[in-house]
Amino acid sequence: MTAISDLDTPRDRLHAARAAHLWLALLLVVVSLASLAWGASGTSLWAALAKLARGEPLTQLEAVILWDIRAPRLALGICVGASLAVSGAVMQGLFRNPLADPGLVGVSAGAGLGAIIAIVLGAALPVWLVEITGNALVPVAAFMGGWASTMVLYRVATRGGRTSVATMLLAGIALGALAGAVSGVLVYIADDSQLRDLTFWGLGSLAGATWAKTLVAAPLIALSLGAAMTLGDGLNGLAMGEATAHHIGIPVQRMKNIAILTVAGATGAAVAVSGGIGFIGIVVPHLLRLATGPDHRTLLINSALLGASLLLVADVISRTIIAPAELPIGIVTAVLGAPVFLWILLRRRTMMEL
Amino acid sequence: MLTARNISVTLGHAQVLAHVDFTARAGQLTAIVGPNGSGKTTLLRALTGDVDYSGTVLLNGTDTQGQRPWQLAAQRAVLPQATTMAFPFTVIEVVRIGLTNGTAATHDSRAMQALRRVGLAHYANRFYQELSGGEQQRVQLARVLCQVWAPVEDGAPRWLLLDEPVASLDIGHQLEVMEIARGFARSGGGVVAVMHDLNLTALYADEVAMLAGGRLLAHGTPADVLTDATLSDAYGCALRVNTAPQAGHTFILPHAANLMTENWSAS
Ligand SMILES: Nc1ncnc2c1ncn2[C@@H]1O[C@H](COP(=O)(O)OP(=O)(O)OP(=O)(O)O)[C@@H](O)[C@H]1O
Ligand SMILES: [Mg+2]
């Protein structure tokens, strides 16, 4: 053996990854404060905070901007960013491939189709059903759409426990095109107010954030992310293939079902409230794998924290860079994310099994 | 005891295994041998429950089919013929995955011990994907050893099921790995290994099951199974067994085949 001898005790990336929980949580706090403080209007959080500290009341304008505009937007941004990043990490673990991402492989498109169907055909539903489902109709429909497309994708791209990257990406394109076509038809039959809803939604933005919206999406997202956090050991095992995962004691089928439902739930809810925001799901887990390794027990939590922070940063950029106008956040994440995606492709060209 | 009764497996339209009976005892190394495509891997996959089969598999007296994955994982570990990792895990991280099913926190040093056992302790921080095929196979062996560390637990033997554990190794590491397997058996555990190397089989196996064409051709001690007639029948070429001068172990010398070929084809 001619290998260079390393230290006898292994360098522990697991400790680093656990320490990162704390650092990333801190980062999220800082970014959250910044996101509350910065905005198109001149209202400064710092001045407001100082006022609160001195016991002076806020002006009504300050209260409205902070509490009714920026705070729900912050909460929604955290939910959406964490959802997208964790969905990416879970899908990559499930497909055993770092390029799997809900946006790229058609899950977001499926969820989007669900949302569009709910917006356009929702009017045709019986009144009592609309009353029961209320605001939840669009997120639930998006969840169903995301779930259906994840299932189809997994069936098509995975044979005998191995996933073909080529098939996965091509199936994603097909799903995306199909969803786009059906959406197009629906847009034709939509009336004016629905059309406005659709356009607004399709831009991919946190601009429409309200507490009502946040409170509808948050439970589905919390449930999905909570379930995702239990997948760490399972996804680690799955990295060696389904048979080996089973040999080390993982109930593979159940684990895969949870993973698919998780992705559908988190992506569906995120897409329903924010439209299609891409690349967070690829960039965040990839950076974390580079920094602290691929161990999913820590990767999932860190993805949630970093995903939330990154989306908030993108949101701040989107609403300040051309203020008082607002750039759709999807553009910002694409500009940040597409180069990283290409970089992964270039680096991994030999291992892609295309 | 690991007992398989009347195992038949159909994959696609082909019957790959037909009515195979197989027994392995704790404290012994049982080898499964046979030509390519004879169903060795399939038999192992039936024993681990990875493939649908008819018949019964009893692990330490309990039918494996009703058991949960983690119950099985506590009793047996499986080394596949080759394992690819999807993400850039380091060697030590791969070995630690073997601790998933147990009380990981208390046995973390076990991973290093297992690596030392396969002679790869100095590779702990290297990336698994950057190792050679043989090194990867030894890392996987360390992972498997981590999973069933104690050969006997609560009075019940634990099992190592190995699919061609030495196929990609050099001769020194072949012997090292076979020693590890035998050591596990000598301490009371059970070992089932699919083998291609008949000499190593003769040297290390306590029992041999010979498959050919999806059927069990012979099952017994190496001396009983590895005979001229059985081997020639199974592998479809002339083979002659011999005994090494000192230890008295059987060995098979392919060179001798030339001498017999004419007789063989004549008969
Ligand atoms: N998924 C499958 N579908 C159909 N036939 C299969 C499948 N897997 C294996 N077989 C067939 O079953 C037979 C036995 O295969 P198996 O892998 O058990 O052989 P083996 O004894 O392990 O061979 P080797 O020495 O080459 O590893 C072969 O003829 C093979 O072609
Ligand atoms: Mg085989």
Automatic annotation (TrEMBL), chain A:
GO annotation terms (biological process): siderophore-iron import into cell
Recorded superkingdom: Bacteria
This protein's UniProt keywords: Cell membrane, Membrane, Transmembrane, Transmembrane helix, Transport
Segments traversing the membrane: 20-40, 74-95, 107-130, 136-157, 169-190, 210-231, 258-287, 299-317, 329-346
Pfam hit, one: FecCD
Signal sequence, renumbered to the chain: none
UniProt-annotated location(s): Cell membrane
Membrane topology: Multi-pass membrane protein
Family matches, as InterPro entries: ABC_BtuC-like, ABC_transptr_permease_BtuC
Family: Belongs to the binding-protein-dependent transport system permease family. FecCD subfamily.
Protein name according to UniProt: Iron complex transport system permease protein
Organism, scientific name: Litoreibacter albidus
TrEMBL record, chain B:
Pfam families: ABC_tran
Superkingdom of source: Bacteria
InterPro entries reported for this sequence: AAA+_ATPase (IPR003593), ABC_transporter-like_ATP-bd (IPR003439), ABC_transporter-like_CS (IPR017871), P-loop_NTPase (IPR027417)
Residue ranges occupied by any ABC transporter domain in the UniProt entry: 2-238
Keyword vocabulary terms for this entry: ATP-binding, Nucleotide-binding, Translocase, Transport
Gene Ontology MF annotations: ATP binding; ATP hydrolysis activity
NCBIfam families in the cross-refs: PRK13548.1
Function recorded in the entry: Part of the ABC transporter complex HmuTUV involved in hemin import. Responsible for energy coupling to the transport system.
Protein name (Swiss-Prot/TrEMBL): Iron complex transport system ATP-binding protein
Species this protein is from: Litoreibacter albidus
